[in-house]
């Protein structure tokens, strides 16, 4: 079981993500545990106040470090769960959250997340965490939306959560490329038909088509992913047919494409003239 503990002032924002769809089913099956911790319970004042004005002046309020510390200490004292092996703060200065980070976190036993509000946490809170994460270069009103993204991205990687154990391996970013396009019924819709190769039953042809489509989408939309995509010699050949240049392949550290096959030479038969 992987435990997620979210320390937040608004646990009701995360409750639906923890209770519905795949995550809710995973909780019911005992595959993941979601622990929503209300930080106001650790305020130690009758008004449940967790923030204060910033030293030096300025707009907004700052969440107190002692409140964050007491909330985190309660996790370590919880006999029903293992102590957190990662304490994560959502921060614009944090490491970019990627699929690779999600896969790393899925191998942990207990992840604790600090979800900020207002002007964020007292800077001394940074000494209480093991890492900081950012889901992108933009500003939100709090960390709960980021927490929901991480919960969904990580929980689906826990063994047994998805119906098909191998389904996430072909996802965008897991393979290093954007995912190939998917189709289902009806076979024709408003003049748009499902590609014939997907209906032909040739699994090798389907696999080759899907790889080519993933390369085409990545080249057109996210070429920045290609240097770390683990390209093969056949991928290089496909990329050249899609419009990439030899210089592009070198920049992406792609291997050389297969050498073109030379045509087989056939023996010339002798000829004679009738005398």
UniProtKB/TrEMBL annotation:
Q: Where is the tRNA methyltransferase TRMD/TRM10-type domain?
A: 3-226
Superkingdom of this entry's organism? Bacteria
Provide the protein's localization: Cytoplasm
Listed GO MF terms: tRNA (guanine(37)-N1)-methyltransferase activity
UniProt signal peptide:
none
Primary localization class, coarse: cytoplasm
Entry annotated with the keyword Cytoplasm: yes
Q: Which UniProt keywords apply?
A: Cytoplasm, Methyltransferase, S-adenosyl-L-methionine, Transferase, tRNA processing
The protein's annotated catalytic reaction(s) are: guanosine(37) in tRNA + S-adenosyl-L-methionine = N(1)-methylguanosine(37) in tRNA + S-adenosyl-L-homocysteine + H(+)
Cross-referenced CDD domains: TrmD-like
Q: Where does S-adenosyl-L-methionine bind?
A: 116, 135-140
Annotated region Disordered: the residues are 249-275
Any single GO BP term = tRNA N1-guanine methylation
User: EC top class, in one word?
Assistant: transferase
Recorded hits in Gene3D superfamilies, A to Z, give: 3.40.1280.10, tRNA(m1g37)methyltransferase, domain 2 (1.10.1270.20)
Per the UniProt record, one Pfam family is tRNA_m1G_MT
Under Enzyme Commission nomenclature, its number is 2.1.1.228
PANTHER family from the UniProt entry: TRNA (GUANINE-N(1)-)-METHYLTRANSFERASE
* Protein function: Specifically methylates guanosine-37 in various tRNAs.
Mind telling me what this protein is named? Answer: tRNA (guanine-N(1)-)-methyltransferase
Q: Which organism is it from?
A: Deinococcus gobiensis (strain DSM 21396 / JCM 16679 / CGMCC 1.7299 / I-0)
């Amino acid at each position: 079981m992987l435990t997620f503990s979210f320390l937040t002032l608004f646990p009701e924002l995360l409750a639906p993500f923890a209770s519905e769809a795949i995550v809710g089913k995973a909780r019911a099956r005992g595959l993941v545990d979601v622990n929503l911790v209300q930080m106001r319970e650790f305020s130690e004042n009758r008004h449940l106040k967790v923030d204060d004005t910033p030293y030096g002046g300025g707009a907004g309020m700052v969440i107190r470090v002692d409140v964050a510390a007491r909330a985190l200490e309660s996790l370590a004292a919880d006999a029903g769960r293992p102590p957190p092996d990662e304490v994560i703060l959502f921060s614009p200065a944090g490491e970019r959250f990627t699929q690779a980070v999600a896969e790393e976190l899925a191998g942990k036993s207990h992840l604790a997340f600090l979800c900020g509000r207002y002007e964020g946490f007292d800077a001394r809170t940074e000494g209480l965490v093991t890492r900081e994460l950012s889901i992108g270069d933009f500003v939100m009103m709090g960390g709960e939306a980021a927490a929901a993204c991480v919960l969904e991205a990580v929980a689906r990687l826990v063994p047994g959560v998805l119906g098909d154990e191998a389904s996430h391996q072909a996802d965008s970013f897991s393979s290093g490329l954007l995912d190939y396009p998917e189709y289902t019924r009806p076979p024709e819709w408003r003049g748009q038909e499902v590609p014939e190769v997907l209906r032909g039953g040739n699994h090798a042809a389907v696999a080759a088509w899907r790889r080519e489509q993933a390369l085409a989408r990545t080249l057109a939309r996210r070429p920045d992913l290609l240097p770390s995509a683990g390209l093969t010699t056949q991928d290089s050949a496909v990329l050249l047919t899609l419009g990439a240049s030899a210089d592009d392949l070198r920049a992406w550290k792609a291997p050389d494409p297969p050498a073109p096959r030379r045509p087989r030479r056939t023996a010339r038969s002798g000829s004679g003239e009738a005398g």
